[in-house]
Amino acid sequence: MAQVHLLLNQKGGVGKSTLTVNLAAITADVIARPDRQVPPVLAVSIDPQGSATWWADRVGDDLPFDFVQAHREPQELSRLKEIDGYEHIFVDTPGWIGPDADDDGVEDRDPLGDGRAGVALRAVLEAADDVIVPIEPEGLGFLPTANTIENVVKPRGIPYTVVINNWDPRDGTADLDETKAFIDGQQFHRAQTVVRHYKIHTRAAVENRVVTQYPRNRISLEAREDFFRLALELGLGGTRRQRKGAGRAAK
Ligand SMILES: Nc1ncnc2c1ncn2[C@@H]1O[C@H](COP(=O)(O)OP(=O)(O)O)[C@@H](O)[C@H]1O
Ligand SMILES: [Mg+2]
């Protein structure tokens, strides 16, 4: 059975889609086997805005992993793990409006809301083996990140890792240190790896590339390294031994 990794943060623009496609690319790059036609990695977008889809349309056939925009029923989304043939499934999710945003003074029963997006989110949370929570080194993202973890992830008991993304070394370390201090102060599990800001990541989304397809120059390789480090830290590249009789038969 596939491991399902959910990219989640109620705040938009923090790197959910960027991490989804690039972690999928790195993982596929490492574990793909030449004797298999089918890539071992699937990326799923449940973002109704379809930013990752927009993006995947443009990389087209060169994409090193399979990609689907899920228009599926919640029951199917919650059974993602059972899709045959994949070892890792990365799920890109949309942000959502938290309970603090509607200002009606009544705390909503469910922070994910009752709309289509909320229903889809609840379904993929059911399927998730772990959650990756990107955060930018920027104070505005602290509260939404804390809400995401405290109200959505922790109550479900899903293991999670907060990943600092889009740190520009030219800005110095003050914001980075403050962000680390915030995450550690909340006792959230934090990845050591920080994904740095590189123009090539921003450009890649319009230039039809994932990190494994970047040109082989020094800057691109540096930019790519962050994703390899992160994938290593998250344990994505290992070959799992199947328990006898469980899941697909090993061939
Ligand atoms: N490490 C990074 N370096 C440069 N640009 C980045 C980086 N991470 C994200 N971006 C850019 O920031 C914007 C928001 O990222 P995105 O992945 O779309 O966030 P989300 O899916 O959480 O809304 C995009 O334009 C993306 O290309
Ligand atoms: Mg997105």
TrEMBL record:
<protein>
    <submittedName>
        <fullName>ParA family protein</fullName>
    </submittedName>
</protein>
<feature type="domain" description="CobQ/CobB/MinD/ParA nucleotide binding">
    <location>
        <begin position="8"/>
        <end position="176"/>
    </location>
</feature>
<dbReference type="InterPro" id="IPR027417">
    <property type="entry name" value="P-loop_NTPase"/>
</dbReference>
<dbReference type="InterPro" id="IPR050678">
    <property type="entry name" value="DNA_Partitioning_ATPase"/>
</dbReference>
<dbReference type="InterPro" id="IPR002586">
    <property type="entry name" value="CobQ/CobB/MinD/ParA_Nub-bd_dom"/>
</dbReference>
<dbReference type="Pfam" id="PF01656">
    <property type="entry name" value="CbiA"/>
</dbReference>
